[in-house]
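[step 3/7] fold_predict: job queued, chain A
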Amino acid sequence: MRAVLYSHDGLGLGHVRRNLAIAAALKAAAHDASVVLATGWSELPEHWLPAGVDTVKLPAFRKLGNDEYGARHLTLSRDEVRAMRSSLLESLVQSFHPHVILVDKHPLGVRGELRSALAVLRKQGGRAVLGLRDVLDDPATVCEEWDRHGVPRMVLEHYDRVLVFGHPLILDPIPDCKEAAAIRDRLAFCGYVRATELLEGVSEPHGARRSDPARPLVLATAGGGEDGFGLLETFIAAAARASWEGLVVTGPQCSPPHRAALRQRAHAAGVRVFRFAEDLTRWFETVDALVCMGGYNTLVEAVSRGTPTVCIPREHPRREQFIRARAFADLELLRTIDPHQLSVAQLRSAIEATLATPRNELRPRAWNKLDFRGAERAAAELIELSRPSVAAA
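[step 4/7] structure written:
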């Protein structure tokens, strides 16, 4: 079996981490499979790639707004970067001959960069699968965008299956639009995807060691870090002279000036700062509380471990994080703070209340209400579609 897992990776690290988890589950279920990750992220820890999994590095995009992307590193126009990525993706399919491709979120990739690769895949007899996280945006926005771009027609034309990484009773990413209804015949809800398999063999999370065993340890993270400066700045201020110890991971996409400013504030407040932690989700098991934005991977990893969590979700450029955080809060899995009302005093108060929440209550509650077998079920779907009998049907 040969599989390609594509993610555009314009903002944050969630897309590629989800594909990494599915790749690990795929290798566990089909040991002789060859899997290629097509990604713009260059900082993949080597131990995250199981034997039989490799990467094709795409020139990195940076998200500028909804459906707007520019080059992250190269001094090229967005059309030039898009053409480079499209050529690489087409060449990958042409030479690798995958049986199946899993595409994260964008049916034709960013600005249609996958169109030619999908055409080659179809000529070769391969199958295409679209993967969607539990929520894309508020339903009205998704409906308008799907109608404007003809997304349902794209899906029906190019894709054999649509996998949703979530639970239909919690959140459903398919908008209630007339054309979108036809997609449901190809839909399968897999459950939430955890990246636990990526961390097998990783040493103990030394970065999360306590300086003072008598004080609770609270971790703040903003995912990739590109838009988390305000949250982390507020957290550092809240940690100063608090009864708990603060720890910050800025994320690899936090700009150098912002990182320098955070380090300066953290030094004065007695807060330790790290740029990146490849075993960050392991820290969730060690710390007493977590402060974070509402990204898919962060929340899924936190609630599945029963980590007491304060979530301050972003609302722009999409309301995805806000909707997910509110849904999880309704299940009593975490606390939320409206990002427009975030203050040092409010954050400190929410952290102190969260520290009183027993972890041994949160974890069973999460596992009773959510399904965390998304990676394994997605892998099973890909294996099934790659079989000759399915391809010939």
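[step 5/7] annotate
The chain has two domains: 2-193+372-392, 199-369.
The two ends are 18 Å apart (CA to CA).
exit 0
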